[in-house]
Design brief:
The complex is a heterodimer of chains A (746) and B (217).
Chain A lengths: L5 H4 L27 E6 L8 E7 L2 E7 L12 H5 L13 E4 L7 E4 L1 H19 L4 E5 L5 H15 L4 E3 L6 H11 L16 E5 L3 H4 L3 H10 L3 E5 L5 H4 L3 E3 L6 H14 L5 H7 E2 L1 H7 L5 H8 L3 H13 L3 E5 L1 H4 L4 H15 L7 E5 L18 E2 L3 E2 L3 H11 L13 H9 L5 E5 L3 H4 L3 H10 L2 E6 L11 E4 L8 E4 L4 E5 L12 H11 L11 H12 L11 H7 L2 E2 L36 E2 L18 E6 L15 H6 L4 E4 L1 H6 L7 E6 L2 E9 L7 E5 L28 E7 L2 H8 L1
Parallel strand pairs in A: 6-7, 6-16, 8-9, 8-12, 9-10, 11-22, 12-13, 16-17, 17-18, 23-27, 24-26
Antiparallel strand pairs in A: 1-2, 2-3, 4-5, 4-18, 14-15, 19-20, 20-21, 23-28, 25-26, 25-28
Chain B lengths: L6 E5 L9 H6 L12 E4 L8 E4 L8 H4 L27 H5 L6 E3 L4 E3 L5 H4 L6 H5 L5 E5 H7 L3 E9 L2 E12 L7 E2 L2 H4 L25
Parallel strand pairs in B: 1-8, 7-9
Antiparallel strand pairs in B: 1-6, 2-3, 4-5, 7-8
The chains are: A alpha/beta (746), B alpha/beta (217).
C-alpha cells in the first residue's frame, strides 16, 4: 500500500535501515579473544551448504573456523561464507517490529511485537472477511529451513486457507524440477557430487560454477586431474571455462538446440546406448525423429557455436564410458527452460550413463535450501513429500495429518509472478512475505513495485529492511540463519542440520514463532502450537511419508551420525539414498518395476522443442541482454550488500561487453554505458572484455534501484515451470550521455 | 613448535578462479585479524579471467630479510620467513621494494611491515593455513609431497624462479604441467621480449575460435 517513491529505490546514506556496509571491529578484531563456544553448522548462502564453524563470544558471532570434517567441502569456503558472520550485530538489523510512518526516519516507526502481531492479524482477518480467503497471498523463500518452509505452506493452506502461496524458487529451480519430474518422476540431483570425481567427461551447461557454486570447482578440477575432459557451454568464458578442454560459446537461450544437435550426432554415429534405452526408457523413437532436423549445420547456425566444436563435443560425450552433466540457471532461466533441461536429460538418457558410480546428472541448486524448500508445500501446487495439491489422495492424506477437513484445503494457486498480476486485477488485496525480495529479484521490477503499492495491506517478515519490505505497512523482525536451527537439503539431496549459534537479538523472533503467533492471533492456532523445529520435523516426517520426497526416516540424530542423510529415507533403519536410479533399486512409484519414478519404472525421453527467446533481437534492439551473479554477492544482495569486504569486491554492477561491440559504439573500458530494452534504461560502467560473445551483454543482478538490471529484463515465463526469462531479452547499447553519466555517478 | 618440514605449500594458478576466498580468509587469521597478507591479481582481464593469488613464497634466502637495515625479518629453521618484528621494524619500505614477488606490505597505521608467516599459529599446531583451507578450487594446497603426487598426477612442483639476473629458490612451490620441462621459472622473461604484453603468435582466442558467425567480422 505504500507509495513507491524514489526513496524506496535508492535510500539515502543516512537512512537508518541502510544498507550500511559492516566491517570487523571490536571483539571481532581482537587477536587475543578465546571464543566462548564454536558451533558446527553450515553456510547460509548457496545450495552447496558448506560446513562451517562459527565462533561465538558474548552472544555474538565473531568469526569462523574451517569445518574440515564435513565431507562435502572439507574446510573449503568461498568469500561469502568466510564473511557471513558480519551480518550478525549489524547496524541495519531489525530489532523490533515497525509500522509505516512517512514522518519517521527511513519511513517506519517502532512498534511493540505483540501489538504488531495483533495489527497484522486484524488486517488479514478484515481482508479475508471482505474479499475472501484467496485475497490474502503469501510469498516465501527457499533460504528458509525445511521446517519453516513446511510450516509456511501449512499456514497458507490451513490457517489462511488461501490458494495463493508461492516462493522465490520460482525464479530459481522450477525449470529443472519440472523437467526432472517429466523425465524421471522425481526432482532431486541424481547423484552425490563424489560421482563427479571419476567421470571421463564433465559437461557443464549454463552454470558459472566458479562464482555461483565455487566448491564444485574442486570436484571438476579433481576429475580433470584423473583425465576427465571438461566441456563448458556458456555465452561467457567464465573462470571454470578458462581451463576447460572444450568451450562452446552458445548464444543465450539456444541450449535445447545444442542438446538436440548432440543427440542427432549420437544417433548418426551409433553412440546411443540402445540396450539401456530399450530396457529403461520410453519415447526414444519419437524423440529420434524430432532431432533428425538438427543437423550440425543447423545446430551451429541456431546456437552460434562453430560446427567443429559441436562435433567434438558430441564425440567426447558420445564415446565416454562415464560422465557427469551439470546445468544451472543459464539454461533454466528461459521461456523454454523446461525444454532446455529436457534436452540435457535426453543426451544423458541416450548415453545410458546414469544410476551408476561416476555416471551422473544434476542441476546445481542455487539457494541455500533450494532443494528442501521446493519439496514440502510452499510451492503453489504442492503438498509435503513433493505431493501434488491437486491429487485427491494426497489431499486426503495431508488433511488427515494436519487435522483439517479435506474440503477446506485450497486448490492449487498461481506462481509468484502471477500473484502480482492478481494484485493488478484486484483479486489479491493483502500480502505476507518472508525470505523473498522481488523488488530486486523479479524481472520488469518497476511493475512489481507498482503492484506492491496497490496492496491494501502488506506485512513482511525480515531481518533487514529489504527493498521489498520498504513497501510494507508492517514489518515483523525475523531471524538470521545463525539464530535458529533446523534442516536444509543441499544440491546433492543431502539433508543436513543447521545449528543455532546465538539467540535472536532484541524483539526479533525465529520465523516459525512469528508464523505461529500470527496463527494464534487469527484465532486459528490449531496445528500451529509446535514447541520448535524438532517438533515440526517430526510432523513433516509423517506428512512426507509415502511421498516421493520421503523424509520419514530422517532425524537430527541420524543427520549428525552420518554427516547428512540423502532422501528418500523411508525408515529408522534406512541410511538414505545417495544415488538415485541404481539398477534394481526400489521406489515408491515403480514398486520394483524399475529404477525410475513411474509405474513402469522407466524414464521418459521427451521431445524437447526449440523456440527462440520470447523477445528475440531485431534491428531496433540488436543485442542480447543476459544476467547472472558475481562471486561476492548472493541473490538480491539483502545480506551481501551489507557486508563490507564483500561489497568492496564488487561495489557496483557493470555492463560486460566484447571489445568488438564496444568499438562499434565507441565505448571504452570503465566508461559509462547505457543499456536499453523495451522496459527501461540502465547506465553502468562498461567492462570491455573478450570473454563474452560479441552479440551479448551481461549485467549482474544483485543491486536495487537505478542500478537494477531487473528493471530491464522481461517477465516472459516458461509455460510449464513459470520461471522468468532472465537470460535473454532484446537490448541495445551505447555510450552514456553526459546527463546519464552524471545521474549514474550521483 | 616448528611447521613440520614434510608439509609443503603449493600454488597452482591454472586452478585459480579469482574468487578472493584466500584474500578474505587471510584477514580472519587470529594473529593479524582485519589485515590480509594476500592479494589477487588479474593477469589481463580484458582478455582472460586468469587470476593469480600472490602469497609469500618463503624464500630460502629471503631478499626482504637481506635488504632489511634493522634485521627485523627472520627466517626460522623450518623455512618460514616471519613477519617483521615490531620492536625492530623502522617502516623503511626496503623489503616492500626489494621483494621480487611483491609480497611485503607496509601497514602505515602500525608503522610495520606485515607479511604471511604461513599461519604459524595454525601450521605449527597441525592445522592448514587459512587460505589453503578455504580455497574452493584448491589452487592453494597444503600437504605432503606424497599427497600432492596422488592428487595431482599431471602436475610437477617447481621452486626456483628467475627475475632478471636474480634466481631465488623458495619453500612454497609452484605447480606446472608435467609436460613443462624447465626446473626454473623465468618470471620476467615476457618483459624481456621486444613487445612486452603482446600476445604470442600461437595465441588463439578461445571464444572467437569456436564461434559460428554468419558474416565473419
Amino acid at each position: 500500500m505504500a507509495e513507491a517513491g524514489p526513496s524506496a529505490l535508492d535510500p539515502s546514506p543516512d537512512d537508518p535501515f541502510g544498507p550500511h556496509a559492516a566491517y570487523s571491529s571490536a571483539l571481532r578484531l581482537d587477536t587475543g579473544v578465546e571464543p566462548d563456544r564454536i558451533v558446527d553448522t553450515h553456510c547460509c548462502f548457496c545450495g552447496q551448504q558448506c560446513g562451517i564453524r562459527l565462533k561465538v563470544k558474548d552472544e555474538e558471532v565473531i568469526g569462523f573456523e574451517p569445518r574440515y570434517d564435513f565431507p562435502f567441502n572439507r574446510g573449503m569456503l568461498c568469500p561469502k561464507g568466510i564473511k557471513r558472520y558480519l551480518q550478525g550485530g549489524h547496524p541495519d538489523r531489525l530489532l523490533s517490529a515497525y509500522e509505516r510512518d512517512p514522518a519517521a526516519p527511513g519511513g517506519f516507526r517502532q512498534l511493540g511485537y505483540e501489538r504488531a502481531i495483533e495489527r497484522a492479524a486484524a488486517e488479514i482477518r478484515r481482508i479475508q472477511e471482505t474479499h475472501g480467503r484467496d485475497a490474502m497471498a503469501v510469498l516465501s523463500g527457499a533460504s528458509l529451513t525445511t521446517e519453516k518452509a513446511y510450516l509456511v505452506g501449512k499456514f497458507a493452506h490451513m490457517a489462511l486457507g488461501t490458494s495463493n502461496i508461492d516462493y522465490n524458487g520460482r525464479l530459481c529451480m522450477v525449470s529443472a524440477g519440472a523437467a526432472n519430474n517429466k523425465a524421471f518422476g522425481i526432482d532431486r540431483a541424481a547423484n552425490p557430487w563424489s560421482d563427479i570425481l571419476g567421470a571421463e567427461v564433465i559437461w557443464i551447461s549454463g552454470a558459472n560454477v566458479a562464482e555461483c557454486a565455487p566448491i564444485t570447482t574442486d570436484y571438476v578440477w579433481q576429475a580433470r586431474e584423473r583425465g576427465a575432459k571438461v566441456i563448458v557451454v556458456d555465452p561467457r568464458l567464465t573462470p571454470i571455462a578458462r581451463t576447460c578442454d572444450l568451450f562452446l560459446p552458445i548464444k543465450p537461450g539456444r541450449d535445447v538446440a545444442l542438446f538436440n544437435g548432440i543427440l542427432h550426432l549420437m544417433i548418426e554415429h551409433g553412440w546411443v546406448d540402445r540396450e539401456f534405452v530399450e530396457r529403461s526408457t520410453v519415447g526414444f523413437d519419437e524423440l529420434a525423429r524430432s532431432v533428425a532436423e538438427w543437423t550440425p549445420a543447423r545446430t551451429a547456425q541456431v546456437t552460434g557455436i562453430a560446427e567443429p566444436a559441436i562435433r567434438q563435443a558430441a564425440e567426447w560425450w558420445g564415446t565416454a564410458k562415464s560422465s557427469f552433466l551439470m546445468h544451472a540457471r543459464g539454461i533454466e532461466h528461459s521461456s523454454h527452460g523446461v525444454q532446455n533441461v529436457l534436452g540435457a536429460i535426453n543426451i544423458v538418457l541416450a548415453s545410458g550413463r546414469i544410476g551408476r558410480e561416476f555416471c551422473g546428472y544434476s542441476t546445481i541448486t542455487g539457494q541455500g535450501n533450494g532443494q528442501g524448500g521446493r519439496e514440502h508445500g510452499q510451492k503453489c501446487d504442492q503438498l509435503p513429500g513433493a505431493r501434488k495439491l491437486a491429487d485427491p489422495e494426497a489431499r486426503a492424506y495431508v488433511a488427515g495429518v494436519w487435522g483439517m477437513p479435506v474440503e477446506e484445503m485450497p486448490q492449487p494457486g498461481v506462481d509468484a509472478y502471477e500473484i502480482f498480476r492478481k494484485i493488478e486485477r484486484g483479486e489479491i488485496k493483502g500480502l505476507l512475505s518472508l525470505c523473498f525480495n522481488p523488488v530486486v529479484s523479479l524481472p520488469d521490477s518497476d511493475y512489481v513495485r507498482r503492484m506492491l503499492a496497490k496492496l491494501d495491506f502488506y506485512v513482511a517478515i525480515d531481518f533487514f529492511l529489504s527493498e521489498t519490505a520498504r513497501h510494507a505497512d508492517l514489518v515483523l523482525p525475523g531471524s538470521l540463519h545463525e539464530e535458529d536451527e533446523g534442516t536444509v537439503t543441499t544440491s546433492e539431496g543431502r539433508v543436513i542440520k543447521i545449528n543455532k549459534a546465538i539467540a535472536c537479538p532484541g524483539q526479533a523472533r525465529e520465523d516459525w514463532r512469528i508464523v505461529q503467533d500470527l496463527a494464534r492471533a487469527l484465532g486459528r492456532e490449531h496445528g500451529f502450537t509446535f514447541s520448535g523445529p524438532r517438533a515440526i520435523l517430526e510432523e513433516l516426517r509423517v506428512a512426507s511419508k509415502g511421498g516421493v520426497a520421503d523424509y520419514s526416516g530422517i532425524s537430527w540424530e541420524k543427520i549428525e551420525r552420518q554427516q547428512g542423510v540423502f532422501w528418500p529415507c523411508t525408515s529408522e533403519e534406512h541410511t538414505g539414498t545417495p544415488r538415485l536410479f541404481e539398477p534394481g533399486s526400489w521406489n515408491v512409484v515403480a514398486r520394483g518395476n524399475g529404477p525410475f519414478y513411474f509405474p513402469d519404472g522407466k524414464a521418459r525421453m521427451n521431445v524437447a522443442t526449440y523456440a527462440p527467446p520470447t523477445e528475440d533481437v531485431d534491428e531496433e534492439f540488436p543485442v542480447i541482454l543476459t544476467t547472472g551473479r558475481v562471486i561476492s554477492q548472493f541473490l538480491s544482495g539483502t545480506q551481501t550488500r551489507r557486508i563490507g569486504p564483500l561489497l568492496d569486491m564488487d561495489p557496483e554492477p557493470f555492463i560486460e561487453l566484447h571489445p568488438r561491440l564496444a568499438a562499434k559504439h565507441s565505448i571504452v573500458d570503465g566508461a559509462w554505458a547505457t543499456a536499453e530494452t523495451r522496459r527501461g534504461l540502465l547506465t553502468l560502467r562498461a567492462r570491455v572484455v573478450a570473454t563474452i560473445r560479441p552479440d551479448t551483454i551481461f549485467v549482474p543482478y544483485h543491486w536495487p534501484g537505478k542500478r537494477s538490471v531487473n528493471r530491464l529484463t522481461i517477465s516472459a515465463q516458461d509455460p510449464i515451470s513459470k520461471i522468468p526469462e532472465y537470460k535473454a531479452c532484446a537490448a541495445r547499447i551505447r555510450a552514456a550521455t553526459e546527463d546519464e553519466a552524471r545521474e549514474a555517478r550521483g | 613448535m616448528p611447521v613440520p618440514t614434510d608439509l609443503n605449500f603449493y600454488i597452482d594458478p591454472a586452478r585459480c578462479i579469482g574468487c578472493n576466498a584466500c584474500v578474505q580468509a587471510c584477514s580472519e587469521c587470529d594473529t593479524h585479524k582485519g589485515v590480509s597478507m594476500i592479494q589477487l591479481d588479474y593477469i589481463d582481464r580484458s582478455r582472460s579471467t586468469q587470476t593469480v593469488p600472490v602469497i609469500c613464497m618463503h624464500c630460502d634466502q629471503p631478499t626482504c630479510a637481506e635488504v632489511c637495515p634493522a634485521d627485523a625479518i627472520k627466517r626460522s629453521e623450518d623455512g618460514i620467513v616471519q613477519t617483521a618484528r615490531k620492536a625492530r621494524c623502522i617502516a623503511c619500505n626496503n623489503c616492500v621494494l626489494a621483494c621480487p614477488f611483491g609480497v611485503p606490505k607496509m601497514h602505515d597505521a602500525a608503522s610495520l611491515m606485515m607479511k604471511c608467516d604461513m599461519c604459524y599459529d595454525r601450521t605449527s599446531q597441525g592445522l592448514k593455513p587459512m587460505c589453503a583451507s578455504v580455497c574452493p578450487s584448491q589452487a592453494l594446497y597444503f600437504g605432503t609431497r606424497e599427497e600432492l603426487e596422488e592428487l595431482r598426477p599431471n602436475s610437477r612442483a617447481v621452486d626456483s624462479f628467475r627475475f632478471g639476473a636474480q634466481v631465488v629458490s623458495t619453500r612454497v612451490k609452484m605447480l606446472v604441467p608435467k609436460s613443462f620441462a624447465e626446473n626454473l621459472l623465468a618470471v620476467t622473461a615476457p618483459l624481456e621480449r621486444h613487445h612486452p604484453g603482446a600476445p604470442g603468435a600461437a595465441y588463439v582466442d578461445p571464444l572467437l575460435a569456436n564461434l559460428y558467425e554468419e558474416e565473419p567480422a
